[in-house]
Design brief:
Helix content: 25-40%
CATH architecture of the largest domain: Roll
Bound molecules: flavin mononucleotide
CATH superfamily of the largest domain: Electron Transport, Fmn-binding Protein, Chain A
Organism: Caenorhabditis briggsae
Number of domains: 2
Number of helices: 6
Distance between the termini: 28 Å
Pathway: Cofactor metabolism; pyridoxal 5'-phosphate salvage; pyridoxal 5'-phosphate from pyridoxamine 5'-phosphate: step 1/1; Cofactor metabolism; pyridoxal 5'-phosphate salvage; pyridoxal 5'-phosphate from pyridoxine 5'-phosphate: step 1/1
Shape: globular
Strand content: 25-35%
Protein name: pyridoxal 5'-phosphate synthase
Order of helices and strands: HHEEHEEHHHEEE
Number of strands: 7
EC number: 1.4.3.5
InterPro entries: Pyridox_Oxase, Pyridox_Oxase_CS, Pyridox_Oxase_N, Pyridoxamine_oxidase_dimer_C, Split_barrel_FMN-bd
Oligomer: single chain
Length: about 220
């Protein structure tokens, strides 16, 4: 496979500015908060229930979160994060991981399972330098997954780094050692194609040393 023809590294979602602040939380009961979020997504996004009800299920006490795919190559799938985050510590302890892609418009799901390795620092620096200054500032100030007193604490750190960049130039916002890339090297793929009669197609590829064994699974 050649490098991807789509420039995924430079795709940037605009997340907006809807803050989640302790003092304005609509409920301090997590079930009620989930209910409020779910209803808001249903009523305000124009998404259908079919679009918002799929949920990624993980078992054996793993923990899941979304990241942005930065690259896929013939050896695996890369994403960037903070090595000292919760996921970073979990991956240090156990590098086995899975990724789940779900593309509802085409009724496709791809499951990838394998072992995660850290990307070479040179590549991580490259990704870091492609990020907008505001994203670099936010990542540099954040000890990801650490408990912080409030949003103001983070905003104050951001102001300090904005001032530093204004004084010394944006190159002063260097990549912290704790920020870098991960590369998931797959040993298992499953491609799922949904069918309207629910007799879905599931094609699995499992690595056996250096060949991929193909199997069909019952839906
Ligand atoms: C759409 C989306 C994209 C995200 N992309 C990233 C990412 O590329 N890297 C990252 O570290 N966190 C990303 N996050 C935040 C993570 O889901 C997560 O909150 C964060 O990495 C901390 O996870 P941890 O405490 O389990 O380590 C993203 C979240 C969403 C919803």
């Amino acid at each position: 496979m050649e490098t991807p023809s789509i420039d995924i590294q430079n795709i940037r979602a605009q997340y907006g500015n809807t803050y989640l602040l302790e003092e304005n939380l609509p409920s301090t009961n997590p079930f009620t908060l989930f209910d409020i979020w779910f209803r808001e997504v249903a009523s305000e996004t124009g998404l259908t229930l079919e679009e918002i009800s799929p949920v990624c299920v993980s078992e054996l006490r793993p923990s899941s979160r979304m990241v942005l795919l930065k690259d896929y190559t013939p050896t695996g799938f890369s994403f960037c994060s903070n090595y000292s985050s919760r996921k970073g510590s979990q991956l240090d302890e156990n590098p086995n991981a899975s990724m789940l892609f779900y593309w509802p418009k085409v009724n496709r799901q791809v499951r990838v399972e394998g072992v995660v390795e850290k990307l070479q620092d040179e590549k991580a620096v490259n990704y870091w330098n492609q990020r907008p200054l505001s994203s670099r500032i936010s990542s540099k100030l954040s000890v990801q997954s650490e408990v912080v007193p409030d949003r103001q604490y983070l905003e104050a750190k951001r102001t300090e780094l904005i001032e530093l960049a204004e004084r010394e130039g944006s190159h002063a916002i260097t990549k912290p050692d704790s920020w870098g890339g991960y590369h998931l090297v797959p040993r298992y793929f499953e491609f799922w194609q949904g069918q309207s009669d629910r007799l879905h197609d599931r094609i699995v590829f499992e690595r056996d040393v250096d060949v991929w064994l193909l199997k069909r699974l019952s839906p």
